[in-house]
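PT: before anyone asks, these are the final sequences, not the draft ones from last week. 225 residues across everything. Please model them as a single complex and drop the result in this thread when it's through.
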Amino acid sequence: AQTVTQSQPEMSVQEAETVTLSCTYDTSESDYYLFWYKQPPSRQMILVIRQEAYKQQNATENRFSVNFQKAAKSFSLKISDSQLGDAAMYFCAWHTPLVFGKGTRLSVIA
Amino acid sequence: KAGVTQTPRYLIKTRGQQVTLSCSPISGHRSVSWYQQTPGQGLQFLFEYFSETQRNKGNFPGRFSGRQFSNSRSEMNVSTLELGDSALYLCASSPTTGSMNTEAFFGQGTRLTVV
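LR: through. Structure below.
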């Protein structure tokens, strides 16, 4: 069975600074996708970024980028130029079906 | 295009009762998945339906069941409610199933409280 581990229950970052959220996973599959989802206080899960396991190039979406290390089964999320609106729970997930980590609560300090 | 709609948003039930939650996917989406979110266990996969057929099932007791209708709307049912069933139940829809690249679009969830 697939497992996803997020070792940082809480993180904080100063506005405009950069923060990295960690995620490791375990799977015997060779082809899969990894996702980062954001869940703000509204509870609406929002896809932040996705990574295809067979692609070595790290995915990037505006201020969000990942560091995907397939051999190490590591999938960290970097948020650059943090904004107050980035404050939320962030979930790392393996697909399919979606297997989520326990989440990291990110606080952004003005 | 309307998003994923879950009803009701909030629900309070008594132990031993049963409950039915509803999910209307994005128009054109044929896959619907359900997840349970609790502070202790986090987000856990319940089941996935595609074209009225259950395609995948998580590790939950038989008290948890679901179905999907021909219009892709889905319901999940929990019988003989226990206090531990109190959770946020999230529904997600996707255009297809089995495709790892398919983004899942989530509803805002149904907050179930069992007293």
